Amino acid sequence: MAHWVTVWRAAQLVGVSRGALQQRVRAGELELADDGRVSTDALLQLYPQAQFEESGMLERVARIKDEAFGRRVRERLLPSQEVLAQRLFSQTQELADLKRHLERYHALVMDLRGRIHDAARDVSDDRWQELRQVADRGLARVLATESVDVLDVMDDMLKVMSAQVTLRPSGHEFTVEGHDTLLQAGLRAGLKLNYGCGNGSCGMCKVRVIAGDVARVQHCDYTLSEAERAQGYALLCANTAASSELVIETLEARGPQDIAPQQITAAVRAVAELAPDTRLLHLQTPRTNRLRFLAGQSVTLGLPGSAATGGDDVHATYPVASCPCDDRNLHFYVARDSGDAFASQVFAGSVKPGQPVTVWGPLGEFVLAESTRPLVFAACDTGFAPVKSLIEHALALDAAPSFTLFWLATRADGHFMANQCRAWSEALDPFEVTLLRHADAGDGAREMARAMRADLFDVDCDFYLAGPEPFVRELDAQLAAAGVPAGQRFSEVV
Ligand code: FES
C-alpha cells in the first residue's frame, strides 16, 4: 500500500537533494498529490533499491547499531533520551490509533461480507453473486501478506531520529536532528526565522505550535503568559520537537528589510594566513548576543584607536564569508591593502585573539532570491567571501538543481580557498567550478563571460556576481547583452 511523504522527506529517503527531486517533479517524472506529497510507490519506481543503499541512509541506520562508530555520531544524529522517549511515545500513540481504526474497519467489512453472503444465498439475483465475489476477492487481496516496503521502514525510523517541522504560512520545511533546538535546526536549513538573543531571554522567537508537541531543552528566562501557553506558544531557541511531525505558525524575514540593525562587541577568535596577501579574520560574538544576518550581507567592523592609528578608531566594511546558520562565528577575508587602515592593522599583527571588535550591521541587499533555478556564482578575488556565504546558504536550503562557480583571481594568491572549491565540486553533484586568472578585472570578466556563454547563457539561471567594480560592471553588462533578465542578475561590489 502506498505511503505518502513530503518532498523533503522523500529526498532524505532516496539520498538526493530536494532540488534534484523537484526537477524530476517539474519534468513530469514524479507526480505530487494535491497536498504536495509523494507516494513511496512512485518513489520506488523512480529510484530502485540499489540507490537507497548508495544513498547512505541504510548505512547511516546500520551504523547507529555499531558500537565502534562511537558516541559522537550517535549524539549528533539522535536527540536526548527524554526527547527520544517522547517521540517514540507519540509515534506509538499514532500506531495504536491506526491499529484501532483498522480493527474497526476489519470488523465492519467482515460483517458486511457476512450479510452479502446471506443475501446471495437467499436471493436469486446475479448482482448479489457478483457482489459476493468482489468482496471475497478484495478481502483475499488485502489480507495477503506483502513484503515490507523498505521506504516505509526507513521513514518510520527517520521519524524517531529526526523530526520534521513545517512552517505556516510559508510551507517551508526542515528536520531537527540530534540535540538541536528548533531555532538551530531552522537556521541550519537556511530559513530566515525571526529571533533575537538566541538564548531564551528576548521572546522574539515566539511561535505558535499548531500540531505536534515540543520539549524544552534549553534554559530560558523569558516567561510566556498563561494565555500564550494556553494558545500553544513556545520559544524556538529553547525547544525541540517532541513529536515526529510538528507544524508551527511563525513569520519569517522576507529579506534584508526585516533584519534589525545591530551593534555587537565580538572578540577576535583567530587571525590566520590563507595566502601571503589574504588573512582569515574569525570573530566570535557573545553567546547572549549573536549577529542575525542573511547570507551575502556585510558588516562594518571597528577597532579602538591605538598609537599606530594616532588614536583614531579604525573602521572597514567587509562581507561575512560564513553561513548565517552559525551566528556566533563570523568569518571575513581581509586582503592586503595599504589604503585600508583596518587591513593594515590585521597585516601588522596588531589584531590579536581576545581583542574586542565592534560589529555594526548587517548591511546590503546581496542575498539569495527565492527561486528554484540553477545557480551561477561569479566571484573576483575577495568577492569570494559573500559568494561562499551564499553557496553555503543555498546548500542548506537544498532547493537549487545545480551550482556553477566561476572565480577570477587578479592577484597571484587570488584563489586563496581553491581547496574548498575542489571539495564542493567533488562532494556535490552537480557542482561545477572554473578558476580563472587575469591581471585586469574587466578583461577577466569578459573572459569569464566567454566561458559562461558556452553552456550557461541559454539556460534559465540566476547569476550572483561579487568583486571589484570593473569586474561586476563588465560581467553584468555581458549578461544583460546575452539576454539574462535583470531579475536574475544580482551583484555586489566588494
Ligand atoms: S531568540 Fe530570544 S528568546 Fe529566543
Described by strand count, sense and barrel closure, the largest sheet is: 6 strands, antiparallel
Name the CATH homologous superfamily of the largest domain: Nucleotide-binding domain of ferredoxin-NADP reductase (FNR) module
Shape: elongated
Compute the number of structural domains: 5
- Decide which structural class fits the backbone: alpha/beta
Q: Output the number of helix runs.
A: 16
List descriptors.
6-stranded antiparallel beta sheet, alpha/beta, 494 residues, binds FE2/S2 (inorganic) cluster, 5-stranded mixed beta sheet, Ubiquitin-like (UB roll)
How would you sum up this structure in a few lines?
With 494 residues, this protein is α/β, with parallel strands linked by helices.
Describe the overall structure.
- It is built from 16 helices and 20 strands.
- It has 494 residues and is of the alpha/beta class.
- The chain has 5 domains: 4-77, no CATH class; 81-156; 162-252, Roll (Ubiquitin-like (UB roll)); 260-363, Translation factors (Elongation Factor Tu (Ef-tu), domain 3, Beta Barrel), CATH 2.40.30; 375-493, Rossmann fold.
- The strands form 5 sheets. It has a 6-stranded antiparallel sheet, covered by helices on one side. The chain has a 5-stranded mixed sheet with strand order 4-3-9-5-7. Strands 18-17-16-19-20 form a 5-stranded parallel sheet, with helices on both faces.
- Helix 1 (7-14) packs across helix 2 (18-26) and helix 15 packs parallel to helix 16.
- The model is unreliable at 50-55 and 57-70 (pLDDT under 50).
- FE2/S2 (inorganic) cluster (FES) is lined by residues 195-198, 200-205, 222, 235, 237.
